[in-house]
Design brief:
two-stranded parallel sheet; 5 helices; 2 strands; 41% helix; mainly alpha
């Protein structure tokens, strides 16, 4: 085995109701706008997505959403998000709608 050094300063937060900390944790690390990436209906039906959005709003962190992401996403979906970020977003949302739709329909500024 070759010698190497791995430095990974990552904070993991687990436990019941920890999703309400998302906004505070995002602010802690200097986030001003984040992308919420999720798959399908269960995150919506369970109310988890709503609690995450509320936490971000309460912390004053703007967000966009990118739903419909499947496990092991195909390159096209990944590059879709990357293209939007390169257009000047801190975060992005469903790229198939384009810049104008994103600004008016899914990008949420903090209340």
């Amino acid at each position: 085995m070759n010698n190497f050094v791995l430095y990974s300063p990552t904070e993991f937060v687990f436990g019941k109701n920890t999703e309400v900390q998302v906004g505070a944790l995002a602010r802690k690390y200097g986030a001003q706008k984040v992308m919420i990436v999720y798959g399908g209906g269960s995150v919506v039906c369970s109310g988890l997505l709503g609690r995450v959005k509320q936490s971000l709003q309460e912390a004053g962190v703007a967000y966009c959403e990118m739903g419909g992401v499947r496990p092991n996403p195909v390159d096209g979906k990944v590059y879709e998000g990357i293209r939007l970020c390169r257009r000047g977003y801190d975060a992005s949302c469903g790229g198939w709608f384009g810049h104008r739709y994103c600004e008016s329909h899914c990008c949420r500024s903090p209340v």
